[in-house]
Amino acid sequence: MNATSSPLIACENVSWRRNGVDVLQGVSFHVAPREIVTLIGPNGAGKTSLVNLAIGLLEPTQGRVVRQERLRLGYMPQHLRFDNNLPVTVERFLRLASSDKKVIHHYSERLGIAKLHNQQLQNLSGGELQRVLLTRAVLRKPELLVLDEPTQGVDVIGQAELYRHISELRDELGCGVLMVSHDLHLVMAKTDTVICLNRHICCQGAPESVARHPEYLQMFGKQAEDIAIYTHHHDHEHNLHGDVVPAAHHHHDHSNCQHHHS
Question: What is the pTM for the complete model shown?
Answer without folding.
Answer: 0.83
